[in-house]
Amino acid sequence: MRKYKIPGVTIFEPTRITGLPNIEFGKNIIIDSYTFIYSNKRLKIGNNVHIASFVFLSGGEVIEIGDFVGLFQGCKIYASTDDFKDWGFGNPTIDEKFRNPYRAPVVIGKFAVVGANSVVLPGVTIGEGASVGACSVVTRDLDPWGIYIGNRKIGERNKQGVLDNYAQYLKETEGKR
Fold first, then answer.
1. How far apart are CA 38 and CA 141, in angstroms?
2. pLDDT in tens, 73-108
3. Roughly how many angstroms between the first and final C-alpha of the chain, as a whole number?
4. Residues 93-128, buried b or exposed e (16+ Cβ, 10 A)?
5. Is 55 helix (H, G, I), strand (E, B) or coil?
6. Helix, strand or coil, per DSSP, at residue 164
7. How far is CA 141 from CA 16, 27, 106, 112, 175, in A?
8. What's the DSSP call for residue 150?
9. Are 56 and 19 in contact (CB under 8 A)?
10. What span, in angstroms and rounded, lies between the C-alpha atoms of 84 and 137?
11. Rounded percentage of the chain residues whose pLDDT exceeds 90
12. What is the pLDDT of residue 91?
């Protein structure tokens, strides 16, 4: 039995989505098994997005995922967390006034990929076409079309090659979309 019936979205069970009214889904989205999506703010998932198994999206603030994005196995996207650097302590069992929560939007640009088991922290923008290597921890904005291991840029993606391939895709799928 399919628990979630969302037009244009294929969801493999078991998957858990909390805050469904806050989520805007594009078309041709695949969400693999064992994914957990929590959204108490707006969460926008673009067209042709793949969210692999064991991905966790924590939407304590706005999350925007662009078209043609890939979130690979086990990656975590956090739009909120607790800040323990200053005076905060504890966990959700105590009132927020003692916890020092930090919430900030996360934006993942069109054509970006986030590698397996990576973590993206609140307030980060991953630029269009950026590629994040597996097991990275992303704590700051990443420029468009860069290749990153963590926050360190190690190369450039072939932007023109991707855009030419995209143009060919549009030609071949015209009328099918």
1. 23
2. 999 999 999 888 888 888 889 998 999 999 999 999
3. 27
4. eeeeeebeebeebbbbbbbbbbbbebbbbbbbbbbb
5. coil
6. helix
7. 28, 27, 10, 13, 36
8. T
9. no
10. 18
11. 85
12. 85
